[in-house]
Amino acid sequence: MPDWDHFFASLRKYLDYFRSHIQLIPTINGFVGDLQSISDGELSGLLSWTKLATAISLKDPDSRRQFCQDKGWSVIESSVGLLASPVPLVFKGCLCNFLAALAIDEMAA
Predict the structure, then answer these.
(1) In 1-109, where do the E strands start and end?
(2) What's the Cα-to-Cα distance from 4 to each of 8, 26, 41, 62, 74, rounded to whole Å?
(3) Digit-coded pLDDT (tens) for 9-40
(4) Of 26, 36, 51, nearest to 86 (Cα)?
(5) Rg, the chain, Cα only
(6) pLDDT value at residue 25
(7) Would you say residue 107 lies in a domain?
């Protein structure tokens, strides 16, 4: 059964994957990165877990602090890194909402 450790480790693995698999394609205007993709099933799971983490962060200050303070999870670093990666915009939107929920506390902001 998946848990927070599994979810946040997955975020880190996706970030590592997108960082290591970017390929530059020459174009007339310079170089463009070759967009990698996330399957629909994986994207659906990532969106669901991110929305759940956002809802919990908005309602439970202790969980919100745990998300931010657990160094093994690297929540903020992974989320910001994925925002700069070629992931679908809908996932970037969920990550922005999640980061906004974490930023409610002064420590995370």
Answers:
(1) 24-27, 30-33
(2) 6, 40, 19, 14, 12
(3) 999 999 999 888 765 555 555 545 555 578 89
(4) 36
(5) 15
(6) 55
(7) no
- For position 19, what pLDDT does the model report? 84
Residues in the chain: 109
Task: State the pLDDT at residue 26.
Answer: 54
Is residue 84 classed as helix, strand or coil in its secondary structure? coil
Between 35 and 63, name the one with better pLDDT.
63
DSSP code, position 29: T
**Cα–chain-centroid distance for residue 55?**
15
Question: Is the distance from CB of 73 to CB of 64 less than 8 angstroms?
Answer: no
Q: Structural domain tally of the chain? A: 1
Please indicate, yes or no, if residue 29 is contained in any of the structural domains. yes
